[in-house]
Amino acid sequence: MPPAPPTIPSVSSQCAISLPAFLADVEVLRGPVSCALEVPTARGILWEASPGELTLAVPDVARYAVSQGRRVTYDPAPGATTKEIDWMFRLLPLAALLYQRGLLPLHAAGAADDSGAVLLAGGSASGKSTLMAELVRRGFKCLGDDVAPVELDAQGRPIVLPTYSQVLLWEDADRKLAVESRPSGMAVGPQRLVDLCDRFEERARPLKAIFRLTSQDGIAEADSPSTGADLFRRVTRLLYNSQVCETLADRARHLNLAAAVASRVPFHSLPRRGTTWNVPAIADRVLDALGGRGCRG
Q: Which of the ends of the chain has fewer CB neighbours closer than 10 A, N or C?
C-alpha cells in the first residue's frame, strides 16, 4: 500500500503565520479583521491602507491587518490551511510590515555567497525564483523569495535580511535544476512550494549587486545611468507595491535607504530574449558580472 500523503495542518492546530527571525518582536494574533478602514488614504485590489495600517482580504484564505509595524492579525477563511495563510502573508502583508518598520522591501529573490548578497528583481513570473534556485545549485545560499528586506548597517551600507527558506517554483524546475529541496505540500496552480532549508542563509549579508529581469524582448536598460536621479528611479521601480509604500513608509527614511542603494550597489539588466529563457546561461551572466565567482555547474 502506498504511503499516505502528508497532511496539511488546519488553522486550529497552530499559529498560521511564521515570521523571519529579525521580526521576532512582532505580535501575531488570530482574531476578527474588518477590511474597511475608517479613513483609508489608498486602495488597491483587495487592500486598503492609511498611515500605520494596512488590511488585505484574500478570498478563501484570510483577512489580514498589519498595524504600526508591531502587530499582525489574521482572520482565517473556512477551510483555509496554515500553509495558504502563511504564504499569502509573505507577500503584501509582509511588505507592509517592512515599510512600517522603516525597511526597504524590494520585489526580488535573494541569494548569497561568501562575498555578499545579490538580488534578482522582477515582476511576477519573470523567472527570479528559478534563477535563484539555479544559483543555489551552484553554491549560493537562499536569502528569501519575492520580498527582499533591505536596510543599512552601522556604516550606512545596504544589507539584505534573510526571510524564508521556502521558494515557489514551477513543477519541474527543482527536478531539472537538481536543487536539494523538500516538498512543502502546497501547490499554487502549476507551481509548488519547496523548502531550501539546507541551503538557507540565516545571516544578514551586504548587498553586492542587483539584477533586474525583464521579459521585454530586445529592451534593456543601460547598466550605467547618466545621472543620480536615473539611479534613484531605477531603485524605486523595484519596490514591492509603490502605492503601499507611499502610504506606509516614513518618507525621509525611505529616501535615505533608496539613495544609499542607488549610490552604492551595481545594477545590471537581464532581458529575456524571445519566448525561451536559458536559465544556466543567464546564471553564467550573473556570475560574469560578479567577477566569475561560483561554480558554473
A: N
Q: What is the dihedral of CA 94, 9, 164, 178, to 10 degrees?
A: -140
Residue 176 CA to residue 196 CA, distance in Å, equals 15
Distance CA 261, CA 105 (A): 12
Taking the model in full, what pTM does it have?
0.87
Per-residue pLDDT at 124: 75
What pLDDT, on a 0 to 100 scale, did the predictor assign at position 168? 84
Q: Which residue has the cell 537562499?
A: 142
Instruction: Enumerate the β-bridge partners of residue 121.
Output: 108, 212
Q: Are strands 267-271 and 205-214 parallel, antiparallel or unpaired?
A: parallel
Compute the distance between CA of residue 16 and CA of residue 28 in angstroms, rounded to an integer. 9
What are all long-range contacts of 77-81, with beta carbons under 8 Å and residues at least 24 apart?
A: 80/11, 80/16, 81/8, 81/9, 81/10, 81/11, 81/186
At 232, give phi and psi (nearest 5°). -65, -45
Going through the chain in order, the beta strands assigned E by DSSP cover 27-30, 42-44, 47-50, 53-58, 62-67, 71-76, 104-113, 116-121, 141-144, 147-152, 158-160, 166-170, 182-188, 191-195, 205-214, 267-271
CATH number of the domain located at residue range(s) 104-289 in this protein: 3.40.50.300
Sequence spans of domains, the chain? 21-100, 104-289
- Collapsed DSSP state (helix, strand, coil) of residue 255: helix
Low-confidence ranges of the chain (pLDDT < 50): 1-13, 217-222, 225-226, 296-297
C-alpha dihedral sign at 257, 167, 196, 163: positive
Helices (H) and strands (E) in the chain, counts: 8, 16
**Which tens digits make up the pLDDT trace of 236-274?**
889 999 999 999 999 999 999 999 999 999 999 887 665
pLDDT of residue 278: 82
